[in-house]
């Protein structure tokens, strides 16, 4: 099966995918446990106009353009959500649509051929450069270190915000750092899976992992393992069926979740609370 | 006023307002060290606000003083029961505030957490997912988390509401043990009878402090009537409280 991955560009794609799978899986767990899945998807989409601007302006570059867009999006959404009349993801959904529209408009204005729209939206895993691989390695290391350091605070706050805030076991800083890390990881994963599919690798492996275990530490490692498996499976499928790798990776992730749901229902892991 | 070393908890003219609404007005009291104090009062009387203000978590006027490190058991219902953690993990969280950013719980912390689980009668459930425990077992675990904080002053917000009677007895036994060890306890409750039975000192609150004293002084119809108003029924020597503790399960 692995001789399907015999060419240098496939091996580079595999390496980049496996490296970025580490922070995607780890941070994805916190995204799932804290109910941030929609936000994470929207951050991915918000990078679309940023990437277009970055490609059109070589002084900026696609990475910095996407990162600026992701950070700007996070700040704008948290500011707008302070108005309690528009909550429950309304602002996020609105900003997501606006970002997609602005990206499409900018792409037209910049002229066809400036940025390959399919690559920006769905990624081009087979076209990742050595620089992309290095970026994935750096972000992987940052994600691993930050998750280990923030784990107690994030756990205490996610489990019981009131207790954590009053006792100093957790605070807002950890939550804000988490949002920043999610933006960074999303941007680093863009060359591989694109802005529309990045949440498939951030959310789906973690959600699948949650079905497989009742322990936080094992959920984190399951998520990393599943994310890696899905990258490998997606690449193999893309090569064998001659389909776009980003879409293949996302489809494999979806199939994995469906399998875990069916298994969870049949075998009964993921126990229900006992009655009081 | 007592000597500083003998005071566990003190409030002096403590007032809290949310926007224009007054939640707590000019509350002054002193709880001696190693005392189990109960806070009574109707819904919206400011019981939770008092605990949060004592923890220093709310902007307030006046002053408060806590004799040592506080530990806290918040009201049930705010906890994410679906979070993937076992009973031991929840109790270990009580160590986090002392460990700070850099250190993770070590062997001594785990040993202490297991002792605490044993004390709250959950030695056999250490590895059980929190969400699969009964509500009484969950509350015992959360009391265990506060014990793991090893505070000198324990602030408990309705730790017995919605908890089965055997679990209530376990929790009260553990709290009495803490008092004997010199810890000061302040517990809000809706159960007047239980408060009279287990507490050394009662604070009756309704925005202002209506009364403070030992149960036999506080449990007089005119005192409780001032705090509870029409919610209180006096039936020939028995006092019945018409109250709905159910509002606390609302989000």
Q: Strand order across the biggest sheet of chain B?
A: 5-6-7-3-8-9
Query: Any idea of the CATH class of the largest domain in chain B?
Result: Alpha Beta
Which spans of chain A of ≥5 residues are poorly predicted at pLDDT below 50? 272-276
Q: What fold name goes in the CATH topology slot of the largest domain in chain B? A: Rossmann fold
Note the run of SSEs of chain A as H and E. Answer: HHHHHHHHHH
Report how far apart the termini of chain B are.
Answer: 40 Å
CATH topology of chain A: ABC transporter involved in vitamin B12 uptake, BtuC
In total, the number of strands of chain B is: 11
Radius of gyration of chain B: 18 Å
Structural class of chain B, please?
alpha/beta
How many helices of chain A? The count is 10
Give the overall form of chain B: globular
Estimate the helix proportion of chain A, in percent.
over 70%
Shape of chain A: globular
Assembly category: heterodimer
Tell me what the structure shows.
The complex is a heterodimer of chains A (276) and B (251). Chain A is mostly helical. Chain A has one domain: ABC transporter involved in vitamin B12 uptake, BtuC (Orthogonal Bundle). Chain A contains ten helices and no strands. In chain A, helix 3 (62-80) packs across helix 8. Chain B has helices spanning 47-54, 87-93, 96-99, 107-119, 135-148, 165-180, 192-198, 215-218, 221-228; strands spanning 7-18, 21-32, 36-40, 61-66, 70-73, 153-157, 184-188, 201-206, 208-213, 232-235, 238-241. The longest helix of chain B is centred in the C-terminal third of the chain and has 16 residues, at 165-180. With 251 residues, chain B is α/β, with parallel strands linked by helices. In chain B, the strands form three sheets. In chain B, strands 5-6-7-3-8-9 form a six-stranded mixed sheet, sandwiched between helices. In chain B, strands 2-1-4 form a three-stranded antiparallel sheet, covered by helices on one side. In chain B, strands 10-11 form a two-stranded antiparallel ribbon. Mean pLDDT of chain B is 87; it is low at 244-251. Chain B has two domains: 1-68 and 153-165 and 184-251, Rossmann fold (3-Layer(aba) Sandwich); 78-151, no CATH class. In chain B, a hairpin with a 1-residue loop joins strand 8 (201-206) and strand 9. Helix content of chain B is 32%, strand content 27%. The chains are: A mainly alpha (276), B alpha/beta (251). Chains A and B meet through helix 6 and helix 7 of A and strand 5, helix 2, helix 3 and helix 5 of B.
């Amino acid at each position: 099966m692995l001789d399907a991955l015999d060419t240098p560009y496939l091996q580079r794609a595999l390496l980049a995918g496996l490296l970025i799978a580490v922070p995607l899986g780890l941070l994805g767990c916190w995204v799932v446990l804290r109910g941030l899945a929609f936000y994470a998807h929207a951050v991915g989409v918000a990078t679309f106009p940023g990437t277009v601007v970055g490609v059109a302006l070589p002084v900026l570059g696609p990475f910095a353009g996407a990162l600026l867009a992701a950070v700007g999006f996070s700040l704008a959404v948290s500011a707008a959500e302070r108005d309690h009349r528009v909550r429950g993801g309304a602002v996020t959904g609105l900003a997501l649509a606006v970002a997609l529209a602005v990206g499409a408009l900018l792409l037209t204005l910049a002229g066809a051929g400036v940025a390959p729209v399919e690559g920006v939206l769905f990624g081009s895993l087979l076209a990742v450069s050595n620089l992309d691989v290095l970026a994935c390695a750096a972000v992987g290391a940052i994600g691993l270190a930050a998750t280990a350091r923030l784990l107690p605070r994030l756990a205490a706050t996610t489990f019981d915000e009131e207790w954590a805030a009053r006792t100093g076991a957790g605070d807002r800083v950890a939550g804000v750092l988490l949002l920043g890390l999610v933006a960074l990881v999303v941007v680093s994963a863009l060359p591989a899976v694109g802005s529309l599919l990045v949440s498939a690798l951030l959310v789906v492996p973690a959600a699948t992992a949650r079905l497989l275990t009742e322990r936080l530490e094992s959920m984190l490692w399951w998520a990393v393992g599943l994310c890696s498996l899905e990258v490998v499976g997606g690449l193999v499928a893309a090569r064998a069926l001659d389909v776009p790798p980003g879409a293949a990776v996302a489809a494999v992730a979806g199939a994995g979740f469906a399998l875990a749901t069916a298994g969870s229902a049949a075998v009964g892991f993921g126990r229900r609370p006992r009655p009081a | 006023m007592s000597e500083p070393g003998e005071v566990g908890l003190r409030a002096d003219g403590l007032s809290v307002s949310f926007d224009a609404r007054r939640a707590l007005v000019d509350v002054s009291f002193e709880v001696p060290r190693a005392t189990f104090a109960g806070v009574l009062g109707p819904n919206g009387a400011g019981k939770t606000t008092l605990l949060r203000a004592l923890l220093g978590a709310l902007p307030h006027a006046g002053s408060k003083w806590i004799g040592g490190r506080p530990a806290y058991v918040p009201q049930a219902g705010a906890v994410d029961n679906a979070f993937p953690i076992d009973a031991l993990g929840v109790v270990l969280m009580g160590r986090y505030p002392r460990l700070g950013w850099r250190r993770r719980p070590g062997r001594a912390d785990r040993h202490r957490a297991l002792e605490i689980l044993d004390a709250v009668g959950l030695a056999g459930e250490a590895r059980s997912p929190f969400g699969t425990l009964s509500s009484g077992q969950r509350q015992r675990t959360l009391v265990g988390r506060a014990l793991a904080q090893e505070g000198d002053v324990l602030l408990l917000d309705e730790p017995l509401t919605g908890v089965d009677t055997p679990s209530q007895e376990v929790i009260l036994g553990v709290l009495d043990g803490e008092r004997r060890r010199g810890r000061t306890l302040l517990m809000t409750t809706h159960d007047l009878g239980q408060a009279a039975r287990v507490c050394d000192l009662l604070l009756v609150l309704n925005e202002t402090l209506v009364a403070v004293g030992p149960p036999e002084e506080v449990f007089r119809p005119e005192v409780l009537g001032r705090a509870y108003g029409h919610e209180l029924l006096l039936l020939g020597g028995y006092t019945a409280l018409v109250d709905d503790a159910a509002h606390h399960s609302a989000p």
